[in-house]
Amino acid sequence: DPSKTGTATVRIYTKNKNDEEPKFSQQVYTPNVDENAGPNTLVTTVVASDKDGDNVRFGFVDDKTESGQFVIEEITGVIRLRGSGISLDRDKYELNVTAMDDGACCPDGKKHIHTSTAVVVVFITDVNDNKPVFKDCGSYSPKVEEGAPNGSPVIKVQATDEDKGVNGQVKYSIVQQPNQKGTKFTVDEETGQVSTNK
């Protein structure tokens, strides 16, 4: 007789184990914040998920929700400037952010809590909010001899601007009064050197 074959369906249920750590959507976040941003300004939102289905809580290193000028919301991952006393006096701030699972996926999940980290580099954008200030302006008292040749040096003025980068660069020019035709002087826009201009 030919051999006979029978079939059966067997369902195998796997028991979930908390063996996955949270994964951030990116390892480095690089938001920009204006230097004059006020309290509670939104900086960025970090995102992480856990393949085990655990809930994820966010924080800074040492399980804190505040780090210097910044605070993080545990549930949402939203990072903001703190509520008061803001002083953004650096070009950038580096924050180490953690994501921790809660082991809710499985019965013994809390015995194996996992944590992962990401870096948030907050770049501070300079705002052009300072005027150039002339150094020793009160002591300027230039004199020119009558008949001095064209291009004769008269005085070198200097101004500084507390803004950073391009906003802190100073260019010089001579302001003409209304109805004034031409000027007997020129200024080098880069150096501040004033010279005669006949």
TrEMBL record:
- Domain Cadherin per the UniProt entry, residue ranges: 25-134, 136-198
How is this protein annotated for GO cellular component?
Answer: cell-cell junction; plasma membrane
Arranged from A to Z, the UniProt key words for this protein are: Calcium, Cell adhesion, Membrane, Repeat, Transmembrane, Transmembrane helix
Positions of the UniProt region annotated as Disordered: 179-198
Keyword Flavoprotein (UniProt): no
The record, for InterPro entries, names: Cadherin-domain_protein, Cadherin-like_dom, Cadherin-like_sf, Cadherin_CS
Please list the coiled coil stretches.
none
Q: Which GO terms describe its biological process?
A: homophilic cell adhesion via plasma membrane adhesion molecules
- Supply the Pfam families for this chain: Cadherin
Q: Which PROSITE patterns match?
A: CADHERIN_1, CADHERIN_2
Q: Which GO terms describe its molecular function?
A: calcium ion binding
Locations listed in the record: Membrane
- PANTHER family per the record? DESMOGLEIN FAMILY MEMBER (PTHR24025), NEURAL-CADHERIN (PTHR24025:SF23)
This chain belongs to the protein called Cadherin domain-containing protein
Q: Which organism is it from?
A: Bracon brevicornis
